[in-house]
Structures are given as structure tokens and as C-alpha cells.
Design a protein that fits this description.
The structure holds 2 protein chains of 2 kinds.
Chain A lengths: L19 E4 H11 L4 E4 L6 H12 L6 E4 L3 H13 L4 E5 L1 H6 L1 H9 L5 E6 L13 H5 L6 E4 L3 H15 L8 E6 L7 E4 L4 H7 L18 E2 L6 H32 L7 E4 L6 E5 L3 H14 L4 E6 L1 E3 L3 H8 L4 E6 L10 H10 L8 E5 L9 H15 L7 E3 L4
Parallel strand pairs in A: 2-3, 2-4, 4-5, 5-7, 6-7, 11-12, 11-14, 14-15, 15-16
Antiparallel strand pairs in A: 1-8, 6-13, 10-12
Chain B lengths: L10 E2 L16 E5 L9 H5 L5 E3 L4 E3 L9 H5 L5 E5 L4
The chains are: A alpha/beta, B alpha+beta.
């Protein structure tokens, strides 16, 4: 039986379970439920709120045994989650946009103190101009914060990424906080068929991190977490943090294999390649617009234009080696961003891809496409135009390095 | 790589020593106690900001790994039993 279209390429429906219709927030809530957390501390903010509502419903129904803490703000939410995590528990929180801004110091404490907490970012634009619409700008404000950041394309991937996030965060080789990011509304509020895995399968998948082999806060062996550090010791912890990031990059591929074995769905590791191998040029993006770009790639292929797509699943650490491998031999690369870097005046992912492309010989054109800001649709015609422009650049046509889709 | 800490992050373990900052590195002068003048009031012990002073029975003595050389013990001593002496090279 061929896999249904909503499942990743090559996937088989796992466990014989029928998919149910879930939006991204509900899918995330099921993922959290299945990971058996000890604490949920979060503050509601659009578009993350329904995720919390679903978790509280699980709690009210007696399905979720986690402590829930009603905090007075996001800073406390993440701080409570950090406390439980350093004490050896498993904690969860979630936020969006200005809530993320409000927890920024706790956010940096989490990564610098190497606390393996998991947090959803239901991605939204940052103020100002004030809006509650979809964008990836909130994630971009924390991209250098030292967390591992996974970006999802579908509601199924949201559920699955929560499981992967705990497996990755709590691995002694990683010991880093992990964000699971998905776009507000396009993913958080729109429903798709999602297979909810069996509890036993998830328990089996998380078995390697069940025993929490890490130093924890406790009375038997008291320890301090978050000491004051100066001088060489500071550099040492920064070095170790970077090394852990390197390991996290490699480990996602291995965990992807474990996930496929346990739950039947492969995602392709840190970067999903779609018809990329024999492509003449490559489009790169992350998040929900990748689905539309796959349709665009298929349509261009029917016209005889060899388009390909690389979807970045792991934004931090950046899978530079994988991206370089996929770009090698291509004539041009087009990067679609739902965010803006002020000063560079390009998209954020574009900057990364352009930096990686410096290692290509010969150099190829890399074009930044900015679109979909504040919840506007990255429509098929806009993305097809971006792909055609990239194709033309590869064939020698000159043009601007940044193009605002829908504005010009 | 030469590592100073056995841990992955800024954590500390009482067995290895809870201090991760050797504040004695900052010191430009060190306190020297005169046991003959010490009245054993213990004020230096109580006031030391780094808590590095130990009771040696005849006098009180600063642990130089953590004494930052602030001189507060000299200021607080009612018996003028402590003097600051410049560290060499300062």
C-alpha cells in the first residue's frame, strides 16, 4: 500500500493506527502527553494558547499526570521548567513572539547552563508593527541563543518532533535545550490527518534517555547549577557548548533512524532533500511553505525544468555539511525566508546558506526571497516565480540579490 | 584541550569544591595575623566577605586561595592584630 500523501516520503502508517484530524497545537499536546512530562509551566499567548488548553484538558481528564503551574509570565514559565529539569525531571513549556522575548534571560540561562528542557515556539511575527500573525521572526530573534532548533513542515512532524526533541535534549552526548518550532495558524491552527503513536512505541523510543544519566539537583548529592564563571573556565564552557552542538547535529541523523525503526516515519535527518539529487538548481526553505514548494518543484519538473528542494529541519545547529553537499553541482540556489535580518536586509536562512555556499567551487548565485510575512500566503504562483528566477540566475541572467515576493 | 572543570556546564560539586572562581587570584595584598596581639574576638572570621578565614586557635588565618585582599579584616580588628602586606610583583 502506498503511503498517504500527508505522510513523509517513504513512510508506512505505523502501528496500524488510523490517523485522526489534529491541528498543530493539538498534535504538539499529544506529543507532550506521550513523553510523560513531570511538569508543564506555560503562559498563554496567541497562537500557542490552544496547545495549553489541550494539555489542561488532558490533565482534567486524568490522562496527564504532570504538575501544571499557572505562572504569572513567560519568564517564570521557563524558569519553573528549568528548576524541574535540573532536579532530574522532564519539563515542557511553550510560547510565541513577545512571550519568547519576555523569557529571554531564562532562555539564555537554559542553554548556557546546559538544561535539557523542551519548548515549543508557535512562530509569530515580532512587534512592531504590532500583529499576532504568522512569521518566523520570533525564532530568528533567538537563533544565536544556544538552543537546538527544529522547524516542522506538517502537524505529524510536530508531534514526532516533540518525541525527537526529548530524545535529543536528554542524551548525555547533547545535554542541550531544544525548541520545536512551527508556524502560527498555518500549522498551529490548521488540521491535518495525524497518526498518534502508541504509548509503548514512544516509551521504547525514549528508553535510551529514561534513566537521566546526568548530574541533577538533589539532597543526596547536592550540586550547584549556574555558577559564576570568569576567565578560562568561561571559554571552556563555551567550547563544550559548541562541541555539544556539533554532536547534536550528527545525532539527529542517528535518532531519525531510531525513530523510523520505532515509529515508522523517516524524515531524512537534519535536511530533507526533495528531488534534489539530479536538480539543476536548488530551492531552500524551512517550515510550512516547503509543502507548497514541493508542488512547485513537481510542476516545474513536468515542464522539463530540473528543480529541487532542500528543507532545513534543524536550523540550529545549522546542517552546513548536508547543505553544502546538496548545493554542490547546482547552478543556482534560491532561499525563501519568512523573516528579515535588519542590516543584512535579507532573509535569515539566506545568510546561513550564502555563508555555506562560500565553500563551493565554482561560486554560484544565491538569491534571497522574502515573503509570507504577517501571515500572508506564500502562494504557489509566488513560489513558482521565485523558483523560475533562481533557474534563470543559474543560466546567467543578472538581477538583485534580494527579492520581496508580492511587493515587487 | 586542557579542561579545568569535570562538568559540561557551569555546575559545581561540593566534593570538588563549590567555588568555581579562585578569588585569591585578584589579590594585591595579603593579611598577616600577629598571634601575640589577637584577642580572639572572631570579628575577622564573621566579617570576611569571602568567608575564607579559619580559626587556628592562637589566631585566625585567611585561606589565600580565596582571600581577595580587601583588607576588611584589618579594618574590623579591635586589637590591630592584622596587617596587610603587598604581594610580590604587584
Amino acid at each position: 500500500m502506498a503511503a498517504p500523501a500527508y505522510l513523509p516520503q517513504g513512510a508506512q502508517p505505523a502501528d496500524g493506527l488510523a490517523p485522526r484530524l489534529l491541528d498543530g497545537n493539538k498534535a504538539a499536546a499529544y506529543g507532550v502527553l506521550l513523553c510523560r512530562p513531570d511538569l508543564i509551566a506555560a503562559y498563554p499567548i496567541t497562537p500557542q494558547t490552544p496547545l495549553l488548553e489541550q494539555l489542561y484538558k488532558f490533565k482534567a481528564d486524568g490522562r496527564l499526570t504532570a504538575e501544571t503551574v499557572e505562572v504569572e509570565g513567560e519568564n517564570s514559565a521557563l524558569s519553573a521548567a528549568l528548576g524541574v529539569t535540573v532536579a532530574g525531571g522532564r519539563a515542557f513549556t511553550a510560547t510565541s513572539s513577545m512571550g519568547l522575548t519576555f523569557m529571554y534571560d531564562a532562555y539564555l540561562f537554559a542553554s548556557g547552563t546546559r538544561v535539557p528542557v523542551v519548548m515549543v515556539i508557535a512562530m509569530r511575527e515580532q512587534t512592531a508593527p504590532t500583529t499576532v500573525s504568522c512569521g518566523q521572526q520570533d525564532l530568528m530573534m533567538v537563533k544565536e541563543g544556544g538552543w537546538v532548533q527544529l522547524v516542522c513542515e506538517s502537524c505529524q512532524e510536530i508531534l514526532d518532533s516533540i518525541l525527537v526533541a526529548y530524545r535529543l535534549a536528554e542524551d548525555p552526548q547533547v545535554q542541550l535545550p531544544v525548541n520545536v518550532c512551527y508556524e502560527g495558524y498555518y500549522l498551529s491552527h490548521l488540521s491535518e490527518p495525524v497518526t498518534v503513536p502508541a504509548q509503548e512505541a514512544v516509551d521504547r523510543f525514549l528508553l535510551p534517555v529514561r534513566d537521566k544519566r546526568r548530574p541533577v539537583l538533589g539532597t543526596e548529592h547536592p550540586m550547584t547549577f549556574g555558577t559564576y564563571v570568569v576567565g578560562e573556565l568561561y571559554a571552556e564552557y563555551r567550547y563544550k557548548h559548541c562541541q555539544a552542538m556539533e554532536r547534536a547535529g550528527g545525532m539527529l541523523d542517528a535518532i531519525d533512524g531510531e525513530f523510523r525503526a520505532a515509529l515508522g516515519r523517516p524524515y531524512g535527518g537534519a535536511v530533507e532533500a526533495y528531488r534534489a539529487e539530479d536538480a539543476e538548481f536548488l530551492m531552500v526553505t524551512m517550515g510550512s511553505a516547503a509543502g507548497t514548494l514541493k508542488v512547485v518543484v513537481d510542476e516545474l519538473r513536468k515542464e522539463g525544468i530540473a528543480a529541487g528542494l532542500a528543507r532545513v529541519r534543524m536550523f540550529r545547529p545549522l546542517p552546513a555539511r548536508e547543505l553544502l553537499g546538496l548545493m554542490r553541482g547546482k547552478r543556482a540556489v534560491g532561499v525563501v525566508d519568512r523573516s528579515v535580518s535588519f542590516g543584512w536586509n535579507r532573509g535569515h536562512l539566506f545568510i546561513d546558506v550564502k555563508a555555506v555556499a562560500q565553500d563551493l567551487e565554482p561560486r554560484i548565485p544565491v538569491v534571497s526571497f522574502i515573503g509570507g510575512l504577517a501571515g500572508t500566503d506564500l502562494r504557489r504562483d509566488l513560489l513558482a516565480g521565485a523558483a523560475r528566477t533562481t533557474w534563470e540566475r543559474g543560466r546567467g541572467r543578472a538581477g538583485a540579490e534580494v527579492i520581496w515576493l508580492g511587493l515587487e | 584541550m586542557r579542561f579545568h572543570s569535570p562538568f559540561e556546564g557551569p555546575w559545581a560539586d561540593p566534593e570538588a569544591g563549590l567555588f568555581s572562581v579562585r578569588s585569591g587570584d585578584w589579590r594585591q595584598q595579603r593579611p598577616v595575623a600577629n598571634g601575640a596581639r589577637c584577642c580572639r574576638c572572631g570579628l575577622c572570621f564573621l566579617y570576611c566577605p569571602t568567608g575564607c578565614i579559619s580559626d587556628r586557635v592562637t589566631h585566625f588565618e585567611a585561606e589565600l586561595e580565596f582571600c581577595k585582599g580587601c583588607g576588611l579584616c584589618v579594618y574590623i580588628c579591635p586589637a590591630a592584630a592584622i596587617a596587610m602586606r603587598a604581594e610580590e610583583g604587584c
